[in-house]
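ADP-ribose pyrophosphatase, mitochondrial, pasting as requested.
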Amino acid sequence: MVHYLLRRDWIGRIRLALTLFGLPCTVCTPGVRPVISCSSSHPFRTSQTISTSFCNLYTTSIQTMPSSAAPHVKSRCLEYPGSKIQRFLVPDDKVDWSQNWPQYNPVSYTDPSVVNKPVWADPDIGSFSPKFNTVDGAVDRTSFDGSYKIEEGKPLNPHGRTGVTGRGLLGRWGPNHAADPIVTRWKVDAKGEKIYHSVSKLPILQFVSIKRKDCGEWAIPGGMVDPGEQVSLTLQREFSEEALNTLAIPPSERVKISERINKLFKSAGFQVYKGYVDDPRNTDNAWMETVAVNFHDDSGNSVSELPLQAGDDAGQVQWVDVDSSFLLYASHSHFLELVSKERQAHW
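Structure tokens follow.
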């Protein structure tokens, strides 16, 4: 415990020093390659309801992160994930495109996995003419933040400079839409009674978390929205594939699991967040946006009884206590904080 507290202390000092110099901070845990994992404080905005065919979502008094109140941080991580590419350093006061900065000279980078033209990726600009700020065929190129600017035929990140142009690891020019299903339950004892935290005196939530294969960080088991796919289907599909590995189990077992999954995802959930994601994969021309929805197994007899099995992009999967000390990928910690407040649970 003493070692952990000392570590938190020096991490805090490093973050403070970098912030004072106007630089994004990068703090890596042992055994994880350099991907920015420090969280930043953001004011909040009111969430909105989305329409789906499977889940009955409700709005909440809990508020979510704004579209432009604070400069993105993880989108300026010093080394672009999955590469040795160093971003052009962008201080906080130069993030916004409205700031004149003739010296800005970002590196251009698109990962080979994207350059090889997989079905989920756009061609390069010039070989096709995408229709930005609208639904382009089956591909939704609109942004939750509203209309974004186009410069020299390429979309500009609505949250400003990142130090890298191109698409990096992202398939789409402009917004790349994802969906994050946050599946929770109450932590209970052997008698089925809720367990309360010794300090906050609030009941403890648990959520299904996966350990990402690409960066080794724990995350919500989300994924990309396929062209023409409803967000509700993405939420259910991604959870089933990443947390239950339904693609690898026999059809007879898959039917039983689907029944429970359908029951949970048809239940009333609430939209935790809808908008831009401060993601280390973001570039000046491609960025992540998501819809995060919480589905709660209140009685503990739905998904809670299913055996978790990592699949697809997950290295590991398990139920994890919701707690502010548990660091998560991208903006996922913020999403869990909002869920805790809404459920009046420990954070």
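Note for the archive: Residues 178-277+291-342 form a domain with the Nucleoside Triphosphate Pyrophosphohydrolase fold (CATH 3.90.79.10).
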